[in-house]
Amino acid sequence: MAEAPQQPKKSLWENVQETQLWQSIFRTGVPVTRRQRMMVVLNNVFLHLHPVRLPKHAVKIKYTWCMGGLSFFVFLVLTITGILLMFYYRPTVEYAYGDIVDLGEQVPLGIMREIHRWGAHLMVITVWLHMFRVFMTGSYKPPREFNWVIGVVLLVLTMLLSFTGYLLPWDQLAIWAITVGSNMAGAVPFVGASGPGSALLSIGDVNFIHSASDARFALLGGRFVGEGALLRFYVLHCIGLPFVIMIFMIVHFWRVRKDGGISGPT
Amino acid sequence: MDAIKHLINVLCTPKIMFTVLLGTFFFVFPPTDKLYAINRKLKINLLWTKRGGVALFTSLLVFFGFGLTDPNFRLIVTKADNVPIVGLMFLTAFFLWFSMYQASANDQNLAEGKKPNEHADAQEKVLVWPDLVYVEFICLLLASALLIVWSIMLKAPLEEPANPTVSPNPSKAPWYFLGLQEMLVYFDPWIAGVLFPTVIILGIMAIPYVDNNKAGQGYYSFAGRKMAVSIFLFFWLVLWVFLIVVGTFLRGPNWNFFGPFEFWDIHKLEALTNINLSELVYMLVLKQRLPENILLREIFGFITVFSYFVIAPAILAKTWFKKIYAELGPLRYSIFTVLLLMSISLPIKMYLRWFFNIKYIIAIPEFFFNI
User: Fold this and answer.
1) Which of A3, A29, B59, B72 is most open to solvent, judged by the fewest CB atoms within 10 Å of its CB?
2) Could you tell me if A94 lies within 8 Å of chain B, comparing CB atoms?
């Protein structure tokens, strides 16, 4: 009887890679060859945000500062920690403050609120620095003008997200900062009760724009920062603004690719 | 020691600090060829070398190190919510230096007829996996580590429960809006809180459409786009970051100004003797009573504002801004000058307040219309 040819012994790792399960998940295998490295980017929906190949300057930290990517990453961190916080937090005047206290005292290993708060600060900073980098490299110039506009919308939304989140702990800092901020809404020309021209919108002695019908009231759901404002800011913070910012982010990322990829010297 | 602190306190008063900033800014970031030549002559561009960077950072660190020995300074700088702003200051300084460092190297290259430093790299293509994914992964890990360490070291602050009947003094907006709150000192809410933010947002959006200079795309540069960079940095550094720093660290009870080493005394009094332009003209110059008719009363204000926003751009187009007008064309030029004049109106209002005690140019409190 002839001896079977000596098969090289396979490692566990190689065996795992040959299973149907593994191959169904990772179609391209471990990206070792050039072809595989291209395929892994093309086949993966998340990696596919990127092109397959880039000019070398674009992968250098000294050019991009990685600030755009970090902004997105911090946004994801904030989404995850935000979802966790929503399990504990009830947006009512009665419970809000107590729930925040409990988060610090009752929840084991509770640094979610810290990560969320410092992450929010960090995101504002990274978005600003991203804008700064894009400006200094002249990357807003044609054909990328419109993506700069989208970027400005994202900047505003980032600050609005931070602003709406400011109220939720329902402490003194929260309501007074929001009071200062939302007073501005009362000063909008024509539609704010203390804005110029609001007195003009009246018939006889009847004012259409007063403190219970103006822009500030619409924002706060009341004449002052109270129950209504807390609920509105909560919904805006957790659902409304994230929804809007996601749409603009999708457009922003898409346009980076469609407007010719990352900027570079010609 | 106290003398130094006192000196810094005095130097930090808005009048002096802002004037120094305005006076030096356009030499450090020269918008025109003439100022650029002076900048070179004074060797200010040495700031954007490695040695300049070290000097910049050392002085910033020395100031903070020195400051932290003072209890008043420490109290406000180490407040948990102010930590990001200290971070912002250092990051802004660093990235400002870093971008200008690369920009001046590229300017040098271009002046010698060479290509910018990014150019050689841009010719070579690399694969996203692993070259970019790897960089991103490291950034992401570092950011996560930073956030986790920050969160463990520093508890998220929580103040007393909300109480609508007790307002803290000072009541401050979130830090990224403090530039706007600072403007409230000089403008009414409808301008500082509504008009200006809207114009700022629209103005930033308009940058790519107004700036039709093709130079300097895709690499750091300064010399080829002096005007654009100078104006942008003026907004970003002076009217945005600087005002935030002032609003956070130097504005105390009653929104009074306090030096970095000054105790936040709630009883500090600042005389308010502001008058409106109409009162100045009619009562102090013409020595008569204010007219009853609103339009007649505010006629000088209307003339001032009209000539500022309509006549001034037209005159500028024929004189100083002749070249800009030729480059931009009428529509771009109009948008550019109106935005520019509007932003300059802030420093103008500041100086009118500080040196002439003027509150409003146009004051029609009957309709909440004050400028």
Assistant:
1) A3
2) no
Instruction: Say yes or no: B211 contacts chain A, CB-CB below 8 A.
Output: yes
Q: Are A76 and B127 in contact (CB under 8 A)?
A: no
- On the question of pLDDT at A199 being above 80, the answer is no
Burial class of residue B128 (count of CB atoms within 10 Å of its CB; 0-12, 13-18, 19+): buried
Measure the CA–CA gap between A87 and B182, rounded to whole angstroms. Answer: 38
- Which H or E run contains A206? strand A206-207
Domain boundaries, chain B: 2-118+174-183+218-255, 277-370
d(CA B61, CA B160): 34
Query: Among partner residues B88, B102, B161, which is closest to A171 by beta-carbon distance?
Result: B161
Cα–Cα distance measured from residue A211 to residue A223, given in angstroms and rounded to the nearest whole number: 6
Domains of chain A: 62-258 (1.20.810.10)
- What is the predicted pLDDT for the residue at B312? 86
Confidence (pTM): 0.92
Query: Per DSSP, what are the bridge partners of residue B28?
Result: none
Where is B127: in which H helix or E strand?
A: strand B125-127
- Residues B290-307 have pLDDT tens digits of 888 888 888 888 888 888
What the block records as the tokens of A243 is: 């929804």
B70 half-sphere exposure, CB direction, 13 A CA radius: 22
Per-residue pLDDT band for B271 (boundaries 50, 70, 90) equals low
| Element housing B370 (H / E) | strand B369-370
* Token representation of residue A35: 């072809």
The angle, 0 to 180 degrees and rounded to 10, between the axes of the packed helices A67-86 and A241-258 is: 160
B215 contact residues in A (CB cutoff 8 A): 138
Query: In the prediction, which pLDDT does B73 show?
Result: 86
What are the residues whose beta carbons fall under 8 Å from the beta carbon of B238, sequence distance 6 or more?
Answer: B21, B22, B25
Distance from CA of B4 to the nearest CA of A (A): 32
Question: Hey, are the CB atoms on B208 and A148 less than 8 Å from each other?
Answer: yes
Least confident of A141-155, B197-211, B356-370: B356-370
Closest CA relative to residue B225, chosen from B25, B31, B4, B26: B31
Task: Fill in the DSSP letter of residue B242.
Answer: I
Collapsing DSSP to helix, strand or coil, A203 comes out as strand
Mean pLDDT score of chain B: 88
